[in-house]
């Protein structure tokens, strides 16, 4: 499908398969989307199991494409990572989340902690700590009301650089969570060395925690281990009362999942906090 000069279709070769065509198209659209500001941030409540109330929220990016509609992050985050677009996108999400949280906290409701997903590339970029510091200053957000969610795969490469960055972030006063715990390759010893605040137990373990003995054992062990290390445990993807009861019994500190709420646009999330919804 060759079109007039300068058009992207000229890049196509007969041997290019459908998948790479789709990918190319997606990458071009993704670049445009950043310029056109087609992204939105949704917020999903994080709930304290002791009080049953919201103590924070995870920011989750959404892409509102003019023709395709809502595109889920599972479809474009991996490509954004590969192409480096995750850096401008991730930085944008972080800034929005800080602006939003400053607003919510100024409403005089209980202070909320906003979590932001940080990709490996973003974390490793030079000037990342400075960017966090600048963003906190610009948005006026109290550092301990920002939590960075870092996946364990970060922890594998370049340990001393990571340790240094983690230390600087901790000195700034921001919180750190290890995301999707149990799915990557991290060594348990990193948990202690990085002195993270929260361990997020991946939803793949929670999904059938009440029916699968192995997952039940893993979740039980992860909660017990985080208690020993004095790290908070948060279970992701909690959907049923049975899962909730299981986690409560074992002393899990916090949950996130459809049982309480799906991720919501800012206005709807604000209504939830105003209602003072509890579990
Ligand atoms: P994640 O960080 O593990 O985020 C949790 C995902 O689980 C979200 O999917 C959320 O909607 C979903 N979820 C929450 N509760 C439940 C539940 O009870 N049941 C089920 N089945 N799912 C639940 P989402 O929003 O589609 O995001 C997918 C992934 O995309 C995220 O996984 C994260 O890895 C990535 N992502 C999202 N936003 C960002 C971002 O701003 N930056 C980066 N780097 N990654 C992001
Ligand atoms: Ca996350
Ligand atoms: Ca997660
Ligand atoms: Ca995940």
From TrEMBL:
Top-rank taxon, per record: Bacteria
Record's signal peptide: none
Residue ranges occupied by any EAL domain in the UniProt entry: 23-277
Protein name per its UniProtKB record: EAL domain-containing protein
Organism field: Paenibacillus hexagrammi
């Amino acid at each position: 499908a060759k079109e007039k000069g300068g058009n992207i279709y000229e890049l196509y070769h007969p041997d290019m398969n459908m998948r790479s065509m789709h990918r190319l198209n997606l990458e071009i659209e993704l670049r445009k989307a950043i310029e056109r500001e087609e992204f939105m941030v949704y917020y999903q409540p994080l709930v304290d199991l002791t009080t049953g109330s919201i103590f924070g929220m995870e920011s989750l990016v959404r892409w509102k494409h003019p023709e395709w509609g809502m595109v889920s992050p599972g479809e474009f985050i991996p490509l954004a990572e590969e192409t480096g677009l995750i850096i401008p996108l991730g930085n944008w999400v972080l800034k929005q989340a800080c602006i939003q949280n400053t607003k919510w906290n100024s409403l005089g409701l209980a202070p909320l902690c906003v979590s932001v997903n940080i990709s490996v590339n973003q974390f490793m970029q030079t000037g990342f700590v400075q960017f966090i510091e600048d963003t906190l200053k610009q948005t006026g957000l109290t550092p301990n009301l920002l939590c960075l969610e870092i996946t364990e795969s970060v922890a594998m490469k370049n340990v001393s650089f990571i340790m240094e960055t983690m230390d600087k972030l901790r000195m700034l006063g921001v919180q750190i969570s290890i995301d999707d715990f149990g799915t990557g390759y991290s060594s348990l010893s990193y948990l202690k060395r990085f002195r993270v605040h929260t361990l997020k137990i991946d939803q793949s373990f929670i999904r059938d925690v009440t029916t699968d003995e192995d997952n039940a054992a893993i979740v039980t062990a992860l909660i017990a281990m985080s208690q020993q290390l004095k790290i908070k445990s948060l279970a992701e993807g909690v959907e049923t009362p049975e899962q909730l009861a299981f986690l409560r019994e074992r002393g899990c500190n916090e949950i996130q999942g459809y049982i309480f709420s799906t991720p919501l646009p800012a206005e709807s999330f604000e209504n939830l906090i105003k209602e003072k919804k509890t579990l």
